[in-house]
């Protein structure tokens, strides 16, 4: 009954964003994810300047196992004007959250979308301590300990005292006291 009422309300009030978003919320809460993807796609198309709708669309695409579509949507998100380091980091973290956990035995496997996103973050923002540190944290979580330690060691050689303290704390939190 709620779906029918929502559809009628949308038809009688076309273009009302608040109603469209409410309908999207309803679809998502009821588990109608393919329909929610379509509704999010419509909303993102009508509100091309709203980057949050692209993130929501990508998340819904991921939830429907359309990871290729989700990655394309995230690329659109990153191509929006004003997309900077924070947006690149957000995408990398989203992709990391979506990845299957890797066992240490699979740490040498081909890099996944998250690894590529962290590498891209560092490539786009080579002077950012935060970008390099984020990549090191990711690599350590992904079981690539040596690669992470190499980044932290390289950063420590040229770090200011505040950054050096942050690196030391990160290493100690991972029980890497010898490297710290």
Q: What brief labels describe this structure?
A:
10 helices; elongated; 180 residues; mainly alpha
In short:
This protein is mainly alpha-helical. The protein contains ten helices and no strands.
Low-pLDDT windows of residues: 103-110
What characterizes the major β-sheet?
none
- For the record, give the distance between the C-alpha atoms at the N and C termini, rounded to a whole number: 61 Å
SS element count, helices = 10
Structural class: mainly alpha
Order of helices and strands: HHHHHHHHHH
Topology, number of strands: 0
Overall pLDDT = 86
**Rough outline:** elongated
How much β-strand is present in the residues? under 5%
The radius of gyration computed from the alpha-carbon positions, rounded to a whole number of angstroms, is 20 Å
Helicity range: over 70%
Structure description:
This protein is mainly α. It has ten helices and no strands. Helix 2 packs antiparallel against helix 3 (33-46), helix 3 (33-46) packs antiparallel against helix 4 and helix 5 (67-78) packs antiparallel against helix 6. The longest helix is centred in the N-terminal third of the chain and has 14 residues, at 33-46.
């Amino acid at each position: 009954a709620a779906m029918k009422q929502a559809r009628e309300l949308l038809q009688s009030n076309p273009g009302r964003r608040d109603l469209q978003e409410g309908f999207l919320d309803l679809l998502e809460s009821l588990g109608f994810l393919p329909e929610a993807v379509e509704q999010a796609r419509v909303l993102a198309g009508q509100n091309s300047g709203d980057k949050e709708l692209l993130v929501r669309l990508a998340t819904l695409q991921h939830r429907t196992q359309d990871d290729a579509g989700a990655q394309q949507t995230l690329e659109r998100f990153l191509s929006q004007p004003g997309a900077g380091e924070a947006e690149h980091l957000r995408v990398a973290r989203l992709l990391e959250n979506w990845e299957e956990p890797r066992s240490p035995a699979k740490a040498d496997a081909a890099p996944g979308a998250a690894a590529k996103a962290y590498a891209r973050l560092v490539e786009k923002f080579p002077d950012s301590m935060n970008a390099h540190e984020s990549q090191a944290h990711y690599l350590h979580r992904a079981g690539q300990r040596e690669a992470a330690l190499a980044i932290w060691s390289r950063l420590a050689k040229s770090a200011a005292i505040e950054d050096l303290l942050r690196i030391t704390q990160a290493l100690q939190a991972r029980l890497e006291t010898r490297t710290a």
